[in-house]
Design a protein that fits this description.
Keywords: Disulfide bond, Lectin, Repeat, Signal, Sushi. This is p-selectin. InterPro entries: SEZ6_CSMD_C4BPB_Regulators (IPR051277), Sushi/SCR/CCP_sf (IPR035976), Sushi_SCR_CCP_dom (IPR000436). About 10% of the residues lie in helices and about 35% in strands. It is rod-shaped. It folds into 3 domains: about 70 residues, Complement Module, domain 1 (Ribbon); about 60 residues, Complement Module, domain 1; about 55 residues, Complement Module, domain 1 (Ribbon). It is mainly β and about 200 residues long.
Length: about 200
């Protein structure tokens, strides 16, 4: 009788050890996704977690557990590509047109800027496979001035050059009629910020 009990105990320990020690089969990364944790050499109680690339949806359990008998708690999930792209908003100081909301693959969204601003980036974005836009949303930046305000000839004097209006990088030269004396800088330069290099002179 004692021998039978010992044999039963031995068999029980063997079976128990097999269920505990036997691991679960390796899990592969889903297409367009990834996994982390004990995914390739899990033993009972360990887990494997899954994620999807940006724009893809996880179908199934995000975390699987290795159970007794070498079985995972569920089948591996998959990552499904979206049928369209996320909605786009206009940039500050700008607007948009086209299929900018609920866009499907192949449709496009175009961007413009208000007067005085220039567009930095792609003017038109396309909704591509995988639910991604072809580029990031552009921005509208204040346009650099190309000229300076128009100058007026002083009383009793005149001016020569690019003066009304001024152009960046060019100059305006002042002079006085006979009998008058110039007070101030004779030559003004139109600078990159759209400002003259100094105040206009006058004739006295």
């Amino acid at each position: 009788m004692a021998r039978s009990i010992n044999l039963f105990s031995t068999l029980y320990r063997v079976v128990q050890k097999k269920f505990i020690d036997d691991g679960c089969p390796a899990l592969n990364r889903p297409a367009n996704g990834g996994n982390s944790g004990s995914c390739t050499s899990a033993v009972v109680g360990q887990s494997c977690s899954f994620t999807c690339d940006t724009g893809y949806t996880l179908n199934g359990q995000s975390t699987l557990y290795c159970q007794a008998g070498g079985r995972w708690s569920s089948s591996a999930p998959t990552c499904t590509a979206p049928s369209g792209c996320s909605d786009l908003n206009p940039p500050a100081y700008g607007g948009l047109s086209g299929q900018c909301r609920q866009a499907t693959v192949g449709q496009s969204c175009s961007f413009t800027c208000q007067a005085g601003y220039t567009l930095t980036g792609q003017a038109t974005l396309y909704c591509e496979t995988g639910g991604r836009w072809s580029s990031s949303v552009p921005s509208c930046n204040r346009a650099a001035p190309t000229g300076c305000a128009s100058l007026v000839a002083p009383n009793g004097g005149y001016m020569l050059g690019t003066c009304a209006p001024g152009r960046v990088g060019e100059t305006c030269v002042f002079g006085c009629d006979e009998g008058f004396v110039l007070r101030g800088q004779r030559t003004l330069a139109c600078e990159g910020g759209g400002q003259w290099s100094t105040n206009p002179p006058y004739c006295q």
